[in-house]
Amino acid sequence: MAYTVGHYLGDRLAQIGLKDHFAVAGDYNLVLLDQLLEIDGLRQVYCCNELNCGFSAEGYARANGAGAAVVTFSVGALSALNAIGGAYAENLPVILISGAPNSNDHGSGHILHHTIGTPDYSYQLEIAKRLTCAAVSVTSAEEAPALIDHAIRTALREKKPAYIEIACNVAAQPCMRPGPASAVLAEVPSDPASVAQAVEALTRFIESRKKPVLLIGSRVRAAGAEDAAIRLADALGCAVATMAAAKGFFPEDHPGYVGTFWGDVSSPGVRQIFDWSDGIIALAPVFNDYSTVGWTAWPRGENVVVADGRHVSVEGVAYDDIHLRDVLDGLTKAWGTRPKKDTTITEFHRIHRPAAPVAAADPSAPLVRAEMARQISGVLTPRTTLIAETGDSWFNAIQMKLPHGARVELEMQWGHIGWSVPATFGYAVAEPERRIVLMVGDGSFQLTAQEVAQMVRLKLPVLIFLVNNRGYTIEVQIHDGPYNNVKNWDYAGLMEVFNAEDGRGLGLKATTGGELAQAIEKGLANREGPTLIECTIDRDDCTSDLISWGRRVANANARPPEER
Ligand SMILES: Cc1ncc(C[n+]2csc(CCOP(=O)(O)OP(=O)(O)O)c2C)c(N)n1
Ligand SMILES: [Mg+2]
After folding, report:
1. pLDDT of the residue at 344
2. Ligand 1 atom, smallest distance to 82 CA
3. For the packed helices 5-15 and 144-158, what is the interaxial angle rounded to 10 degrees?
4. How confident is the model over 66-82, as pLDDT tens digits?
């Protein structure tokens, strides 16, 4: 059997650790899909549409380190590109692979189906260039290896998505075989001089401060610096907070951990410690309008050091070409056995009294948000990943105390409602051994609901908490109007539709605490498919954090144009 371009691509995907790729078939990618099916150890997993396919690959990348989606030209790829924008925003190496017109048609003046009706097919590549770190068009077998390798290598190095389009008549052309995986996996090492000087500068900075704190940002995972941050926290002994979007990126049972720093909606006591601190060391943060609570809590100035994945700046000097983890490990080593800088954790324990656990509600009383959140946090184990959708689900998830090893996935930078359903599907495909719990609002669910059918198809025992509060409650808090009401659905009833003749998904309704507890029990026992529990609560029953945050973000949105 001839070795082909499609085989080359598939083998590279397998070499970088992919066991699955997500796909929607179309005539520009059918031959390519045939080639990929022939790769040992690389499963083809199907999605209902290309937006979901992109988000599934994004969710897979969260669990697995990288993901891939294979779609058809234009009608497919343009939908998937929204999810690729998301992968860029969220720092995830997702490889979008699109079938493309026959190489003979490029430059021929021919008009092809599925295109915008002009003979220039370059528009998709041009769009992809803006949303990826590398975008290539493969129109001959000879150039395929170099182009495919460039896209994959760049995506892995930069932790950003890449785009590969392959002309439909080239996918099955004979091709060279790939060499060792190191050609696409090897990282560019840190510049040792830059690391050494950054470590020196940071050591001086911390030594000169009495009250340092560590702030863990959402890019710390992409930087591969989560473990190094723990080692540094051990060495310094100071207080450590996570930013909202970095929930779960630092162990919450660590002695230095104080909670979420998020301005006015920080965990109790955390804002005060940050206000008091004279040295904030922010590791791979993203300061945007959401994370700064409408620009009201933006750590900056001379008391703040901001370190990014490949760059640190300390007191006006930029240290480039570093890996954050190398700088953190260097700093941990340099700190050695110097006295701990633990004033901030000591003070935190003085001002903060742990809240009493929330008491269970009367099991027959109508379900309220607080009881729902209490019961959902009860299903979190060290092997759980909780995926929380944009909406009040964010705030509920962020307030939950995570057992050691539990993870949370949020999409706070891109914030595409509906992301969570396909992302959960992709995550569950990658991590079948973990307990996967999704918390999603009714409004968000309506965008991508059909991907639950793929969870049914693959018998994934995902636990879905569908919060039916009859609308876009987060938007009600930011700016209300009739556009925030949604048509009600029989969400639990949908499971029958998705099951059809052979599925084992379970759809349950909870209108009281007692019903929710029973539904959770049934859901945990169902190992043959997803369980969707529709939790009915009042339209305005939301976290107080959402209300405070929503007001501040609305204020930021409402700033009048400045006079020039
Ligand atoms: C694709 C997309 N369209 C629109 C929005 C604007 N938006 C943000 S949150 C939201 C409502 C979410 O409602 P729901 O999922 O029911 O969550 P709730 O706040 O009610 O818990 C909307 C429409 C968005 N973020 N993404
Ligand atoms: Mg809602």
Report:
1. 98
2. 1
3. 20
4. 999 999 999 999 999 99
Task: Give rounded-to-5 percent helix, strand, coil for the chain.
Answer: 40, 20, 45
Task: Say how many CA atoms lie within 13 Å of 548 toward its Cβ.
Answer: 13
CA of 217 to the centre of ligand 1 (A): 24
Nearest to 396 by CA among 244, 177, 240: 244
Distance 440 CA to ligand 1 centre (A): 10
**Residues 468 and 488: beta-carbon distance below 8 Å:** yes
CA distance 351 to 354: 10
Q: Which amino acid is at 158?
A: E
Q: In the structure encoding, which two tokens stand for residue 327, read together?
A: 């700088």
Contact 22, 43 (CB under 8 A): no
Question: Distance between CA atoms of 318 and 87, rounded to whole angstroms?
Answer: 27
**Contact 19/26 with Cβ under 8 angstroms?**
no
What residue has token string 């940050």?
Answer: 274
Ligand number nearest CA of 547 is 1
Residue with tokens 């860029």: 88
Write out 463-508 in H/E/C secondary structure. Answer: EEEEEECCCCHHHHHHCCCHHHCCCCCCCCCHHHHHHCCCCCCEEE
- The residue contributing the CA closest to ligand 1 atom 11 is 472
Contacts of 465 (CB under 8 A, 6+ apart): 372, 376, 437, 438, 439, 440, 533, 535
In the predicted model, what is the mean pLDDT of the chain?
Answer: 97
Pocket of ligand 1 (CB under 6 A): 389-393, 415-417, 441-444, 467, 469, 471-475
Specify the DSSP class assigned to residue 165: E
The whole model's pTM is what?
Answer: 0.98
Can you give the pLDDT at residue 169?
A: 98
Q: Of 195, 298, 230, 360, which is closest to residue 552 (Cα–Cα)?
A: 298
